[in-house]
Amino acid sequence: QVQLVESGGGLVQAGGSLRLSCAASGRSFNGYAMGWFRQTPKTEREFVAAISWSGDSTYYADSVKGRFTISRDNAKKTLYLQMNSLKPEDTAVYYCAAKIVAGARDYAPSYDYWGQGTQVTVSS
After folding, report:
1. Nearest 5 degrees, angle CA 5-CA 52-CA 117?
2. Which class for 109: exposed (0-12), middle (13-18), buried (19 or more C-beta within 10 A)?
């Protein structure tokens, strides 16, 4: 079993920034991809960003390209999402996920482990 714990969410005004963190425990994620997804009461869980655990490849949803940056620190077993130029449309619960087996990086069911989520609210 793998435990993922998100932190860093909060309330921010449009144009502001937040950095989300996801701390992993229970096993090594070496060789596995990780990702960020977000969900609102009116939307299904949608892809935000993904990164190979080696860090050599990153992927972003079109809606966040140029504003969000995904990164990781394997020594600390921590995943990050730097969010800049936040918009009200970014308001959602953000989830960290770990992908143990092969599958689409932008498809939620491809991921095996999930955190509890952290709320991000962007006011206009």
Report:
1. 20
2. exposed
In whole angstroms, what is the distance from residue 38 CA to residue 33 CA? 17
Sorting pLDDT into bands at 50, 70 and 90, what band is 104?
confident
Angle at alpha carbon of residue 51, lines to 46 and 56, rounded to 5°: 155
* Single-letter amino acid, residue 65: K
Cα-Cα-Cα-Cα dihedral sign, residues 79, 25, 76, 73: negative
Percent of the chain exceeding pLDDT 90 equals 78
How far from 65 is each of 42, 102, 116, 122, CA to CA, in Å?
23, 24, 25, 18
Decide: 9 and 120 in contact? Cβ < 8 Å: yes
